[in-house]
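Review box. Two proteins, two foldings.
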Amino acid sequence: MKTFDEILVDTAPAFMVAELGVEDVVYLKRRSEISAGDLKKMATMGTLTGEPAELAAAGILAKGAPATEERAIEALVDRSPPEGIGTAPYGQGPVAIIRVLNDDADGITPDEVDRGLDRVRLAWPCYGDDTQDRRIAAIVGQDAGMLALEVR
């Protein structure tokens, strides 16, 4: 049985992009969960300030940035997918399609993707450039083995 790496390397030529190959990227999953400690702070804040608990909760949650969970994964990155200019008058910024394993441990599952909030850290805009955190704009395809994501 072939490994995921071997499948990606064998599949890359089918996309007709000579430099397309396996890259190490980082999936950045945003979490904005409230912990029990936060609930205690909200209740205390509401009592001390005399504000309703909802206002105290909004103040506490606005101060803290959502936590980010990082997961290193491997992906096929196509940095030049065909695309129209869309609704923007002069076109749009660079777009990439990344294909990852449809798995919650070694890849990304469609159920966990929060479009617009979740990001992928990869060389941008060209292979070999410095890494940047780019947002996942859309899920463009999926099957049992692979998930294709639009990254902007």
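Next protein.
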Amino acid sequence: MRIKIILYPLLLLLSFAVHAQELTAEQAITKVFKVLSGQETSLPENKADLIQNGAWEALAYLDQNQSFELSEGDLQEAVPDYYRFKNKELIFKLINQKNHNEFGIEGRLNYRWDKDYILVLDSKSGVERDRWRLLYVDSLYLALEMGELRVFFTHTPALEP
């Protein structure tokens, strides 16, 4: 019950956007869980185009270290960190942990594809800094495995630098 109260406002917005379908908050939570748990996937051929079409805001996440058998109750609301994949550059804006109404750390890194992985590279040396596995992407949603976290994003307008 706690998870439904925490994620309800966030997922209510999600429910209005899902391909003109009306989803209840419970159905939206189920969709997010299915994507993050790997029960629902979407890895189209044009994945790079979809990811680069605008920006992405984090909505929810699952911590894979949390339990052996994940359930909808393990879903957590994410702070709305911002990611934009533009050409070969990743623009990110992370929420300020002391004031969630503003961005704290902002930066740019290079990235490249390796099959269904996004390799985050050091902008100066080109050395791989991180490797994110693509779990799901369509015109509205994105899910990435970022280390031990699986993060669900929604499409959002791009913030121009």
